[in-house]
């Protein structure tokens, strides 16, 4: 076999080669319970503060401006409460702030901490109600994806708030992702385990009389948590209760594309919901190597990766001089809605980072588009180029003489 043939063969099977450690780890590397009883982590009263206790009357909301709902197991043994990667014994509510640098005696950075406290659930809802009332009832709810710790998801939540200048409260829903590359199937398992917890919370949030608009943002695997939850709320609520879940943004969604086409889009984007201003925006990239790997692991293309599963469709696009990219199809309606419910934004041309899986927080052009969508803009937003599909737009790269500072525009604290 020639050297060129060997390279071609390796290239063809590269995704499978990369997937082998992932699949092997899923089989032989179970989650370690650890040397401490989980009950000991939560024995201290700080894990379950009672109403009106000093632990829940923290006046320093400036240090902890964000809300969090979590099913992670907390460690309340020390003064600084931590959220672990294990499943918790119950859903807890709290407040947190952006990660802060910790300095040593010489003034040098010696680690980072997240200002965080657990709240009494009743007081948490009362505090959210007060904040929502001051911000016209708008709330942003962020659900992270695979391979995240509470530190990394909190960092991203804070960045989303800064990037979008969102005026209402920002909530992070933190589920027990392991934060490790070789724990993908553990993350999938924990995500499915947490479906009931999340849908219960989303239902309660949507049914509050002071909730006027929920902007629901998910990244990667988080889309598989929020989509069935929205369906659940729709099925079990009146029009008024779930129409406030109006702006759904799926960033790099690790969701089966055909499942989305057949079931999810049809239900969540029913004509009735779309006419009530329900819409979904999907960010996808052909350079997303994380979703390319997920394609190979699951056998079918992901919603966030415009890979053509059908080679004949790819050839047809090529013959027409079009990029060989396939996207989720729009729902078919007997009576089409007055508005457009689905928008797909292709970030391939502006992708940043090693894996292209987080363009919305790394690419200046994608960051601007994402911020505009969060704040209610839709359709032909500046910087989008139309494609041969009316609901698909491609983000155009900057002009040759245009220099963009991705770090500054996206307002990142760190990589």
TrEMBL record:
UniProt GO MF annotations: hydrolase activity
Keywords tagged on the record: Hydrolase
A Pfam family it matches: DUF900
InterPro entries hit by this protein: AB_hydrolase_fold (IPR029058), DUF900_hydrolase (IPR010297)
Transmembrane segments: none
Protein name, entry field: Alpha/beta hydrolase
Organism: Parasphingorhabdus cellanae
Lineage of producing organism: Bacteria, Pseudomonadati, Pseudomonadota, Alphaproteobacteria, Sphingomonadales
């Amino acid at each position: 076999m020639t050297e060129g043939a060997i390279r071609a063969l390796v290239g063809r099977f590269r995704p499978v080669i990369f997937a082998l450690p992932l699949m092997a780890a899923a089989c032989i590397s179970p989650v370690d319970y650890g040397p401490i009883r989980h009950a000991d982590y939560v024995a201290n009263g700080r894990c379950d503060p009672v109403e009106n206790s000093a632990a829940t009357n923290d006046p320093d909301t400036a240090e902890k401006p964000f809300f969090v709902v979590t099913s992670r197991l907390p460690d309340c043994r020390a003064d600084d409460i931590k959220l672990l990667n294990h499943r918790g014994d119950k859903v807890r509510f709290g407040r947190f702030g952006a990660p802060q640098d910790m300095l040593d005696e010489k003034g040098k950075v010696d680690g980072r901490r997240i200002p965080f406290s657990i709240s009494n659930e009743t007081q948490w809802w009362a505090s959210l109600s007060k904040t929502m009332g001051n911000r016209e009832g708008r709330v942003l709810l962020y659900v992270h994806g695979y391979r995240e710790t509470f530190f990394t998801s909190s960092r991203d939540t804070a960045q989303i708030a800064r990037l979008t200048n969102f005026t209402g409260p920002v909530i992070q829903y933190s589920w027990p992702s392991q934060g490790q590359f070789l724990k993908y199937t553990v993350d999938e398992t924990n995500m499915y385990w947490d479906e009931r917890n999340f849908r219960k919370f989303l239902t309660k949030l949507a049914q509050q009389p002071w909730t006027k608009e929920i902007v629901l943002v998910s990244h990667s695997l988080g889309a598989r948590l929020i989509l069935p939850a929205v369906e659940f709320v729709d099925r079990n609520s009146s029009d008024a209760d779930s129409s406030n879940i109006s702006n759904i943004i799926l960033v790099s969604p690790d969701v089966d594309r055909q499942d989305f086409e057949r079931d999810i889009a049809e239900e969540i984007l029913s004509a009735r919901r779309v006419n009530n201003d329900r819409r979904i925006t999907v960010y996808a990239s052909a350079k997303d190597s994380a979703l390319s790997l997920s394609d190979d692991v699951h056998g079918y293309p992901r919603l966030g990766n415009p890979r053509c599963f059908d080679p004949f469709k790819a050839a047809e696009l090529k013959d027409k001089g079009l990029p060989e990219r396939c996207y989720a199809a729009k729902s078919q309606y007997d009576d089409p809605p007055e508005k457009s419910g689905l928008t797909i934004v292709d970030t391939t041309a502006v992708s940043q980072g090693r894996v292209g899986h987080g363009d919305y927080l790394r690419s200046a052009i994608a960051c601007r588009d994402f911020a505009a969508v969060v704040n209610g803009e839709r359709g032909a937003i500046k910087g989008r180029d139309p494609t041969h599909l009316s609901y698909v737009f491609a983000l155009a790269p900057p002009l040759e003489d245009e220099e963009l500072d991705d770090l500054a525009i996206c307002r990142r604290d760190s990589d």
